[in-house]
Each structure stands twice: as C-alpha cells, then as structure tokens.
Design brief:
single chain, mainly alpha, 0% strand
C-alpha cells in the first residue's frame, strides 16, 4: 500500500512595503498619543496635589480659629475681657436675668414679664443718670513772690 506523503510546498512570505510603513506610522502615532496623555495626567496630578495641600492648610487655619474663638468664649476669658475694658459686669443668671421670647415677641410662659424687665431697666437708667461723679477738686498753689 502506498502511503500518503505530505507534500511540502514552499511558501513565500512577502511583506508589502506599504503595510510595513503603515505599521511604523501607526505605532509612532500611538506612542505620541501616549506621551501627550501621560504629560497631561502628570500635570493634573500636580495640580491636584497643590489643591489638596492648600485645602489641608486652610482646614488647619480654620481649626485654629475655631479653637481660638472657643477659648475666648470661656467664662474666665469673658471676665478678663470685661475687666480689660473697664466694665463691671458678670454673666447673667438664667433664672432671673434671661428672658426667653417667642416668635411673636412675647415672653415664654414662666418667664420674667416685660413690664418688670422695663421697670428694672428704667430704675437702673435713673440711678445712672442721678449718680454723676463729683468733679475732682483742683488745688492751686499760691504763687509766692520773692
């Protein structure tokens, strides 16, 4: 019996020069697009980094200001500020001196009445107007003639 023998045919692989040039141009174009996108992404990354640093700086400054404001609102700081400005005042007593008003302008139930508040304010103003400090006494030295 005869065996089937594989016939070897010599194939020629021809590379068309136009296809080769097109492949080189296409790869060059892809490389240029990649470089431009990489440069753009790098620039955006730097801008984002700068913005994040600025945000962190502003956030720290805001926290410092809030802490400073909270320190100024403590009772001890308020008393020192009043003394520094020459005011003889103290924090209001919640039971007697604080009046809670409703939206229509009337005191809430179980609060000091507006009339009593006005009476107190009026008597205080009269006391302030009636008690004026006395004029300081001025001593003059007599001129001595020689």
């Amino acid at each position: 019996m005869k065996r089937n023998r594989k016939v070897k045919k010599h194939s020629r692989c021809t590379v068309n020069s136009v296809n080769f040039v097109a492949l080189i141009v296409l790869s060059f174009f892809a490389l240029m697009v990649y470089w431009s996108q990489d440069a753009r992404c790098t620039a955006l990354t730097q801008e984002i980094g700068k913005a994040e640093k600025e945000y962190a700086r502003l956030e720290r400054a805001c926290q410092r200001e809030e802490m400073s404001w909270e320190e100024l609102k403590t009772p001890e700081s308020l008393k020192q500020a009043l003394i520094r400005h020459g005011l003889d005042m103290d924090v209001a007593n919640p039971g007697e001196q604080v009046v809670n008003m409703s939206a229509n302008g009337r005191p809430s139930p179980n609060q000091t009445s507006v009339a009593r508040l006005r009476a107190r304010r009026g008597s205080t103003e009269r006391m302030v107007l009636n008690t004026r400090p006395a004029a300081p006494a001025v001593r003059r030295k007599a001129a001595v003639r020689r």
